[in-house]
Specification:
Length: 230
């Protein structure tokens, strides 16, 4: 494949998934400039995370469990969570629970997209292998972003449970990301039998959270009231 074809195939899944979750916002879409900014920040954090992970590998070794949960999952999800929390949690545009999902997915897919580009060029990937990565790591990062953003939205709009949901907004993505990586590492020859059910579960779980977040939007009530007045 040509360089342009590889680059397009590596970038397209992340952009398509971001567009999908952006358009799932039923009541008040977020400023596209802010979403793009978060996506680009997600791209940029790939570099410090790579350096940190290399240091952790030297210090902790490459045991599959340690690698999956402490070297891969924890740094990646923490950096993403840090960005989403400090850039958007008190932002005026974060005015409904679903917004947290949009912002967390944007950062997650920025990270996943550059990671996918590196993989494509460093491993000489075929188009079919890039499509497999679209189904696995790229969409996996999107699912982890949905979990993170859902609980950030709950943390902001249920003040009595803020601490609980802030903890869940980091702990759940770290846990499921670790499970994802650990499953891949332990089932290299038979990964499809484990990953298809896991990804199906994560997608169904994420879509339920998308619907719940939209259902809790204060703008939903306002829209209904406006329709009644008309």
């Amino acid at each position: 494949m040509s360089v342009l074809t590889v680059l397009t195939a590596a970038i397209a899944p992340g952009v398509a998934l971001l567009a999908y979750f952006y358009l799932k916002d039923r009541y008040d879409t977020e400023p596209i400039s802010l979403v793009i900014k978060l996506f680009l920040f997600g791209v940029l954090i790939v570099f410090p995370i790579m350096v940190l992970q290399r240091a952790l590998v030297h210090g902790l070794g490459e045991d599959p469990f340690v690698f999956s949960f402490l070297i891969s999952s924890l740094p990646e999800e923490f950096f993403k969570w840090f960005l989403v929390y400090f850039i958007t949690f008190k932002h005026a545009s974060f005015d409904e629970p679903y917004d947290g999902i949009v912002y967390a997915v944007a950062v997650s897919l920025g990270f996943a997209t550059l990671e996918n580009v590196f993989y494509a060029f460093l491993n000489g990937s075929s188009f079919s292998s890039l499509m497999i990565r679209a189904f696995l790591p790229v969409s996996g990062h999107a699912m982890f972003g949905v979990m993170m953003g859902y609980h950030l939205g709950k943390a902001k709009f249920t003040p009595e449970h803020t601490r609980k949901h802030l903890l869940l907004s980091l702990a759940l993505p770290v846990f499921w990301h670790g499970v994802f990586d650990y499953t891949l590492l332990l089932s290299k020859a038979y990964w499809i039998w484990f990953m298809v059910p896991l990804m199906s579960f994560l997608w169904l779980r994420s879509l339920r959270k998308v619907n719940r977040a939209n259902a809790k939007s204060p703008l939903r009530v306002a829209t209904r009231e406006d329709q009644v007045k008309i």
